Amino acid sequence: MNVTVNGEDAILVEGVTLADVVAARLKTDKGVAAAVDGEVAPKATWSAFVLRDGAAIELLTAVQGG
User: Fold this and answer.
1) Backbone torsion region of residue 18, taken as left when φ is above 0, otherwise alpha when ψ lies between -120 and 50, otherwise beta
2) Residue 7: Cβ within 10 Å count
3) Residue 63 near residue 30, CB atoms below 8 Å
4) How many whole angstroms from its chain centre is CA 22?
5) What separation in angstroms does the CA of 18 have from each of 1, 11, 35, 63?
């Protein structure tokens, strides 16, 4: 299936979850926020959040500094 992750096209297998995408793209899920199709996805739902074809996924990480 075709999705976008942070504006880049990606091809994923059917049944992949948001937790799978976070794990594949980032070193950790600490300090990460995720949205799918413009809606924030609570972290507690990521493992059960099965993505669909055409989904637009945004992964944001908190950055500390000055």
Assistant:
1) alpha
2) 8
3) no
4) 5
5) 14, 14, 9, 21
Tokens 């908190």 belong to 62
Two tokens at 2? Answer: 């075709």
Location of structure tokens 């959040």: 49
3-state secondary structure 19-57: HHHHHHHCCCCCCEEEEECCEECCHHHHHHCECCCCCEE
Phi, psi of 58, deg, nearest 5: -120, 125
* pLDDT tens digits, 5-42: 999 999 999 999 999 999 999 999 999 999 999 999 99
